Amino acid sequence: MEYNPAFISRSNFVKAAAIFSKPGKAELSRIAPQLIAWLRSRGYRVYVDRETQRYSEGDDTFDRVDMAAQKPQFVVVLGGDGTLLAAARAVSVAGIPVLGVNLGSLGFLTEVPLEELYSTLEALDRDRCTTETRSMLRCQLLRGGTAIATYDALNDVVVNKSAIARLANLDLYIDQEFVSSYKADGLIIATPTGSTAYSLSAGGPILTPLVDAFVITPVSAHSLAHRPLVVRDSVEVSVQVNTEEEEAYLSVDGQVGIRVVHGDRVTCRKSEHRVRLLRMQRTFFEVLRTKLKWGQT
Amino acid sequence: MEYNPAFISRSNFVKAAAIFSKPGKAELSRIAPQLIAWLRSRGYRVYVDRETQRYSEGDDTFDRVDMAAQKPQFVVVLGGDGTLLAAARAVSVAGIPVLGVNLGSLGFLTEVPLEELYSTLEALDRDRCTTETRSMLRCQLLRGGTAIATYDALNDVVVNKSAIARLANLDLYIDQEFVSSYKADGLIIATPTGSTAYSLSAGGPILTPLVDAFVITPVSAHSLAHRPLVVRDSVEVSVQVNTEEEEAYLSVDGQVGIRVVHGDRVTCRKSEHRVRLLRMQRTFFEVLRTKLKWGQT
Amino acid sequence: MEYNPAFISRSNFVKAAAIFSKPGKAELSRIAPQLIAWLRSRGYRVYVDRETQRYSEGDDTFDRVDMAAQKPQFVVVLGGDGTLLAAARAVSVAGIPVLGVNLGSLGFLTEVPLEELYSTLEALDRDRCTTETRSMLRCQLLRGGTAIATYDALNDVVVNKSAIARLANLDLYIDQEFVSSYKADGLIIATPTGSTAYSLSAGGPILTPLVDAFVITPVSAHSLAHRPLVVRDSVEVSVQVNTEEEEAYLSVDGQVGIRVVHGDRVTCRKSEHRVRLLRMQRTFFEVLRTKLKWGQT
Amino acid sequence: MEYNPAFISRSNFVKAAAIFSKPGKAELSRIAPQLIAWLRSRGYRVYVDRETQRYSEGDDTFDRVDMAAQKPQFVVVLGGDGTLLAAARAVSVAGIPVLGVNLGSLGFLTEVPLEELYSTLEALDRDRCTTETRSMLRCQLLRGGTAIATYDALNDVVVNKSAIARLANLDLYIDQEFVSSYKADGLIIATPTGSTAYSLSAGGPILTPLVDAFVITPVSAHSLAHRPLVVRDSVEVSVQVNTEEEEAYLSVDGQVGIRVVHGDRVTCRKSEHRVRLLRMQRTFFEVLRTKLKWGQT
């Protein structure tokens, strides 16, 4: 760590942690203040997002997108996989590790139950946590050849039809080579992390977290021969929108929705950013078995 | 037929036929006038929809929904399955048979190729065509317990999420009994006819046309254990919309799109109306083999 | 158990019940004698199969196939779905109702848990049980045009490749009309009852028990366009074995295995026999939800 | 054929080629002698397998397994994917490239049509062919902890139930970590090359040839939540046979069948051997589009 504590003027804090919370969870009024108090008692400066701010006093509040600039040592996410996806995208640029605590059922990304929160933080404070690095997709929306929007996705990039459209016409290219035209509800490009999310529901395979690949999964493809396609994560995946009259939408991690039009091109590559997940004892296969209820017949 | 030819004043026509055309097909400028001339030469009064009217002169033009009132002996559809679905819904109320002519590739419903059009009409004129009766779904949208819209569907009734929503929460009931909650892109209720359309793309089975059943197929269900469900066509299938913040839509045969809100209920029963398809020599399995390219390895 | 066997003579019995047990279940040494005693105390003559006979004394023992001739009022199956399938086939010829008691996890057919056995029998004894009638498949194996074997199936009839064969070549006919050739691991013809068994694992839909249909589900079909096919249960489904060098097998309810050769034909129709299942309070959808863990996310 | 064999002596050969043929193809009597003559006219010594030997004279005949020792510059396979799989396994140990010529329909591995055979060989002779390297699986069968058989697979390693068994009980381990127990017809471990073969029929995804991964695909898994699993090709995949009474079999590339028993363990790793496929102009996606009939609606 290159900082010099002597130059820290704002406070005596030499460590910092950030908290992101899922909106609208009643139990946060109990959990958030406890967590903040615990962190402060261990000498952490605490940054909170606008949601968490409702349950805290005197802590530094930032919008999600500005949080990375504060360079906390780690982020605690109180919520579900959706909250973690937003937090991860916000801080991945700074390589800050994320700890996902589920307020409810086990998530693929929020694997720490509330009752293990403090023991996990203890371990983290003593540097006894390991991080697992997850790849992200860098997605660009090109209109008339110009990039008009850029996003990082931890789970997936989806181009899909609108609710009232019958289907979307999408052309897939890998490294500029034409692969196929798809008449479908949509096309999902997912990371290994995202392979257990929407792609799985649409019939895609499970990729273990460290496979150097992406999976391209069509949703309700008109042709029965269109199947999920696993490609190296060093390629460029492009989806050309050929839907003339019908509407289509681009979404990123299920959270950003932007209308796309005929001729638009959505291009995905491996992002230079990666998400560092703080993990405790659960392995990927343990989470799989629990979430998918394997072996409970 | 109860009419008395002596009372027909408008013309010498004792027979009538109607034509529905797919919008925007260039070849109609050649095909439609020929077809109209042929029908008139055989003594048919010819009714045309607004699309066909562009290619005709002096024929009676009606909006689709009013066509049934003219009681043509049969309807010729020039186009694809989409055009036939609209025509079939319009005239099913009067039990008028429909002949589907494809302008392009074979359809499941428009199985007569253009080159067989006149030989088929000859057979039809000599009463040597058989009709195949297809069941329809009667769908009601209930809001606050009141039916605010009613539709007949030849293919399917679909409740699905909007493009930017993450998923829809839908509760399924069969004859008022709760079956399951679905977190999914949508739920399809399809007739046997519709089982080869959207339901098939979403992973549903093929029902032969005369099976007395409907199939309920979830689209990208969150739970991997949710599978297509085949029920008797004497039951009532209801879908309760539990999606609170997110948008959802009801569509009928892929053509009617209406926004539904939390608490709405979509109820489907077998319709009293049925569609009579004029068929020539092709059997259902021949069409299946051609459309799905079975056996072409 | 309070009854005194000394007072019961054979001629006092006006009622009879039969018991079939799953081989090798240790708990039967406790359960079977209790059940026999209970039945005798209520005035039932008790017939047992060879497995149950190991745990009983002085009861009438019959092979499964001969049990129907004794015409018990009902059959109690102690075991799983496999045991019930065998019992049902044995007694369906006489229309004897079957009560399935699971010794372990809930089965689709053995839905009564052990702790409800005696309350169910009480209800049954007072004629307050309803029976649900399930259709069966009558399967014939034809070699050189001659029927060399005939079976009734409650779940399914399967023609599949041997373990070391690469695939089976099977031609499907519906009412003598050729449907398609399948290169596949096998073809399953299932009743609605069997739709939740092997057919479901192979990708087939769930048919509610009273749908008048069968489902034909290919297993690992070479062609991706081959999908489960639901047909009316009034048709004849035939599978012609075209596998020249490779071995293929016919199995019935997963229990009878017979080698079939090139040119053999397996023909299925709805059987004249039906299975009467004694049901208590659980509906089909309740069993589905529990067995498939619907809604437990 | 213009060359005069009288002028060719063994010592004149500085190059060598081998030919493997698919058994029982009538057209080989025309094709094989022509090919041999062409190769000799270009100064190749020609080695043939026992099948090809039926159509040749004076050429050196070897069993498939001994062919690699002759170190030909390349192998020409006349046949289908099955013949190529056998040839590839035989010569991969020596890194000899393989040219697959299809006698009939396009194969995923035998992509050169007969009419392009000689132009391809010309290109090959002038060193203008590229080779594509495909990874293989090294599979070991362990009984009581001892390896009793070892195989290399280009497509897949399969453990499956016998035809008359109801299902196989298989435990999956990745790098010694337990993943899940499978009740299924079988488990397929496939290379990217094999992902378009049996695994695809069983519901697996398509892996592009250069993805550094294997895919583990269950066949008709009892649990609906068991899905294909894509793992890095640096891991060890083990399948433990837990099937007590039932029979199970191990097969390699659909060609080797060996009975396995309770307690056996099948272990797969990336092989040190790789297959070098000679490719001309067709890309993987072109072959996919043709084989799977993508875009032909």
Tell me what you see in this structure.
4 copies of one chain form a homotetramer. With 297 residues, chain A is of the alpha/beta class. Chain A has 2 domains: 10-129 and 280-292, Probable inorganic polyphosphate/atp-NAD kinase, domain 1 (Rossmann fold), CATH 3.40.50; 136-272, Probable inorganic polyphosphate/atp-NAD kinase, domain 2 (Tumour Suppressor Smad4, Sandwich), CATH 2.60.200. Helix content of chain A is 19%, strand content 40%. The first copy, chain A, is built from 7 helices and 19 strands. In chain A, the strands form 3 sheets. Chain A has a 6-stranded parallel sheet with strand order 3-2-1-4-5-6, with helices on both faces. A 6-stranded antiparallel sheet of chain A has the order 8-7-19-16-10-11, covered by helices on one side. In chain A, α4 links the parallel β4 (74-79) and β5 (98-102). Chains in contact: A-B, A-C, A-D, B-C, B-D, C-D. Chain B binds chain D through residues 105, 224-225, 227, 293, 296-297, and chain D through 105, 224-225, 227, 293, 296-297. β13 of chain A pairs parallel with β15 of chain D, so a sheet runs across the interface.
